[in-house]
Specification:
Blueprint (H helix, E strand, L loop, with lengths): L1 E2 L43 H19 L2 E7 L6 H18 L4 E7 L4 H13 L4 E3 L4 H14 L3 E3 L11 E3 L4 H14 L4 E7 L2 H17 L2 E8 L7 H7 L2 H16 L4 H10 L12 E3 L4 H13 L8 E3 L19 E4 L2 H15 L7 H21 L7 H4 L5 E3 L2 E5 L5 E3 L2 E6 L2 E6 L11
Helix pairs in contact: 2-12, 3-4, 5-6, 8-9
């Protein structure tokens, strides 16, 4: 059931196979209730004990049948309304697939601002929700957290900012640290030992670099170069030139040519001939370069690296989940690059169902809406089966076995941060190829 907005789902979707959705930890044990003695079985049980047992049974039945309301806070107006609507659409798919009769979504518009998020949370709390999903932005989450702390309700946010996580605030987005750990571990396993990073000078870029430093230290390899660039700049050639050590390598080539030219022996002349046509001497000081950018900026950085003599046949280009963008597939300078991303097969199934329902392709973040509502619906169904009074607790949300959704396996840690099982994709002409599949369980996961 959905309050606040109409539910639109074509009947044709009922025949579609639903993607795998989160499943609860079967080992978790909910509160149990004593059975009520039947007639003739009470023996010498005191009347007050019978009354207590009857009350317990009645309470358990009430817990199984009571309405369950889950708040969903999204930017349905403002500059990011299209993203909020896509997440809501995906949430409706999960509602259709999994929700029971007593499950209700209470949808409220944040307007994409912290003030709007606080108002939306207050409106949802007035509806007596038991869990909040959202908001999308970390600044909005900060505005909502005090209200939920007072109400003692957990929050599962779509943000990917680990800084806002705590034992009652669960960060569901694909975080930079998860992505960097996965790509560095894979690159090291393939033999890379010296890394560089070209990052935007922004909070996101700083977070990526910090995560990279930690992953480098953990793997016992080297971080040789760190260069930041202005994310608003139209031209980053100076930063790419510095990253590539182009001037030093070009100067080394000229010095070598002068040294060989000063000699008259045949070996020197042969060596000098081999240097003709080169612009620099020797490779860069790294064999893997991380570029946490997207869109036009990334499409300009790739050719610049080639121009400043960073050969993709000698240096592996590495990206983040931002690279999960079809527009990159035909950029020659990026061919062979690796990046981490949720496993693509379930996403394709989900995207097809979304297009059938809504007539458009979903943005990548929409899957979070499906997985969050699926998780909430499955936890509610388990609680109904087992007569649990409290459905959404820190323990039920942070089950060690985790869940499996559109974006692969994930689990929340007691500190509110998320762990995910990501795949490694490689850019090839017209396609992305899965070169290292995502783990199917956290027993298999390295991270």
């Amino acid at each position: 059931m959905l309050t606040g907005l109409a539910l639109f789902l074509p009947l044709a979707l009922a025949a579609c196979a639903a993607p795998r959705v989160p499943s609860p930890d079967e080992q978790a044990q909910p509160p149990s209730f004593p059975s009520v003695p039947q007639a003739g079985e009470t023996g010498g049980v005191p009347e007050e004990s019978l009354r207590a047992l009857n009350e317990a049974e009645a309470a358990a039945e009430a817990a199984r049948t009571a309405p369950v309301k889950v708040g969903l806070l999204l930017p349905l107006s403002g500059s990011r309304a299209n993203v909020g609507q896509a997440i809501l659409n995906a949430a409706q798919l999960a509602l259709f697939d999994l929700a029971g009769d007593r499950f209700t979504l209470v949808v409220r518009d944040t307007g994409g601002t912290p003030e709007g998020a606080a108002s939306a949370a207050q409106a949802a709390l007035a509806e007596e929700v038991q869990l909040i999903l959202g908001p999308l932005f970390s600044t909005s989450v900060e505005a909502v957290k005090p209200l939920l702390a007072e109400a003692q309700l957990p929050l599962i946010t779509f943000s990917n900012n680990n800084a806002i996580a705590d034992p009652q605030t669960f960060v569901m987005g694909v975080t930079p640290s998860t992505q960097i750990d996965r790509i560095v571990d894979h690159a090291v396993a393939q033999g890379l030992r010296r890394f560089a990073v070209l990052a935007p000078e922004s909070p996101y870029g700083t977070t990526v670099v910090q995560s990279l430093q930690q992953a480098i230290f953990r793997n016992g390899v080297e971080l040789s170069r760190v260069v930041f660039f202005d994310p608003q700049a139209q031209d980053v050639s100076a930063e790419v030139r510095a990253l590539a050590d182009y001037d030093q390598r070009a100067a080394a080539l000229q010095a070598q040519k002068r040294s060989l030219s000063a000699r008259n022996d045949a070996a020197a002349q042969r060596a000098l001939a081999r240097l003709q046509g080169l612009e620099t001497l020797g490779p860069p000081s790294f064999d893997g370069i991380l570029i946490p950018s997207s869109g036009r900026q990334l499409l300009s950085v790739g050719p610049l690296l080639a121009f400043y003599d960073v050969d993709s046949s000698e240096v592996r280009f590495l990206g983040t989940a931002l690279w999960d963008d079809p527009s990159l597939r035909n950029e020659p300078s990026l061919q062979g690059a690796w990046f981490p991303a949720p496993p693509p097969a379930l996403w394709r199934t989900f995207a097809n169902r979304y297009r059938q329902a809504y007539g458009r392709t979903p943005p990548r973040v929409a899957s979070l809406g499906y997985d969050a509502v699926a998780l909430a619906a499955v936890l509610e169904q388990r609680a109904a089966r087992e007569g649990a009074f409290l459905i959404y607790t820190a323990d039920s949300i942070s089950q060690p076995v985790g869940f499996s959704g559109i974006d692969g396996i994930f689990r929340f840690l007691p500190n509110g941060q998320v762990q995910r099982g990501l795949a490694i994709l490689e850019l090839r002409p017209e396609t992305f190829v899965e070169v290292d599949p995502a783990p199917q369980s956290f027993d298999q996961a390295v991270n």
